[in-house]
Amino acid sequence: MNAAAAALFAIALLIRVLVSISPYSGAQTPPKYGDYEAQRHWMELTTNLPVQQWYKDGPDNDPKYWPLDYPPLSGYQSYVHGLFVKQFDPAAVALHSSRGYETYLSKQLLRWTVILSDLLIFFPAAYLASAVFSSDSSSPAAASPQQQQRQQLFVLAAGLLQPASIIVDHGHFQYNCISLALAVLAAVAIAKRKDVLGSVLFCLSLNHKQMGLFYAPAFFAHLLGRCLQQPTYTGKVLGVARLGATVIATFVVCWSPWLTSLDSASQVLRRIFPVGRGLFEDYLANFWCVTSVFIKWKSLASNAALMPVCAGLTVLAALPSMVQQVLQPSPRGLLLGMANSAFAFFMLSYQVHEKSILLPLLPITLLAASEPDCAIWGPAIASFSMYPLLVRDGVSLAYTATIVLYLLVITALVPSKGVQPVTLGSRCGRLLAAAGCAGAVLLHLLQALVPPPQRLPWLHDRLFVSYSFVFIAGAMLYLNWRQWNQQGSSSPVGKAKTK
């Protein structure tokens, strides 16, 4: 690691530490508090109950008080972090009596579990990804070693400093860095032609948070396309069988404590897919929420009727990207496919959260070498789309500071025009991005200076998510177009020999 990368690691770590000083979700707001209490409560459950009871309703596991509703790897993570917290402050994870526990020491311990998870898992993943994906295969000329190093630093900065993930994990309080890091490592492994390892890593990401499903169509299509490239029919079949066996084996290992009976396994499934919670919650910049101003979807149809509609539309939206990767799999195409598949889920699937915008944002930052404008402005728009959530958490200062700092650093690291040629499309993209940020600033000023009408108290939140929706939908269309119009997509990584 060179000095510039080391400095970037230090800056990224410092930002996370400073953001962790902010308030968090549900701070001092009983009776259920918020996401901070949910994570602490899961540590309480996993360190005090047998593993088979983590997802089972009972007197020690109240389904009405933050039930564990993430897949098994999150439970294991909560157990490990709970042991860490218990070592220094046992009362913070004591069964029953620790509800709403918010001492200074416990808050510091929980904050450091996120920081250390980020530092030990996501930071190395981002560094490896910057080395693999920093080559802009769409550039007409090969980059010099100095330009290549600058591009790698640019990709690394986009991954480590993008504000949305920092604010959600270290301000709002979650552990998205773990599942996202596993997805990054899966993409890196597959780009290096280590398909089995990549499949294991992606399954682990999916078993940490079910939002990993957002990437499933992209990984499936890419790996299927690679298998179909085998010269013989037997090779094609064996390739699919090998990856299928890998997926099944990984899930069996992760789920083994709950595979003793059908009832035990179904308990986990019911927890991680709470279909009764509705089409969407709060304000988010997706199709269902934005259009609900005019069409009352929740009144028009039941949850049971809406679910298959959402599933069908999501598959249709992801299908063009999948077809492209089946026909022409490539490392850059995989990243574009991850972004487009995640956009399809964010926009159209059932029970989406504001924080789900982190899913399409991750591959966009990894595409920084070939899509620098998206990597520069995408994180700002993504953060802006979550503002109604973030302002409730009291992290407005961290929100502003991380966006401004990100834009200052990332624009200073943009590769030279000799490596990234300016085209009509890139000029239009920059003008749109500048206009988008100007509009975002105006909406912030409007919220600060003009109170909403009494009969429309939600007006500002609606404006924020509706405005964000326009740019997110535009990014979705643009990246789908880019995936089907790649030039030189067979990068050096993609030409690596199969191992």
TrEMBL record:
Keyword Iron-sulfur: no
Residues annotated as transmembrane: 109-129, 173-191, 240-258, 300-321, 333-352, 396-416, 428-450, 462-481
Record's bilayer topology term: Multi-pass membrane protein
EC number(s) from the headed UniProt entry: 2.4.1.-
Organism superkingdom: Eukaryota
Keywords assigned: Endoplasmic reticulum, Glycosyltransferase, Membrane, Signal, Transferase, Transmembrane, Transmembrane helix
A GO cellular-component term linked to this record: endoplasmic reticulum membrane
A GO term, aspect molecular function: dolichyl pyrophosphate Man9GlcNAc2 alpha-1,3-glucosyltransferase activity
Protein's pathway: Protein modification; protein glycosylation
Major localisation: endoplasmic reticulum
Annotated signal peptide: 1-27
Pfam families according to UniProt: Alg6_Alg8
Enzyme class at the top of the EC tree: transferase
Location of the protein in the cell: Endoplasmic reticulum membrane
Family (UniProt): Belongs to the ALG6/ALG8 glucosyltransferase family.
Protein name stated in the entry: Alpha-1,3-glucosyltransferase
Species of provenance: Tetradesmus obliquus (Green alga)
Lineage, top ranks: Eukaryota, Viridiplantae, Chlorophyta, core chlorophytes, Chlorophyceae
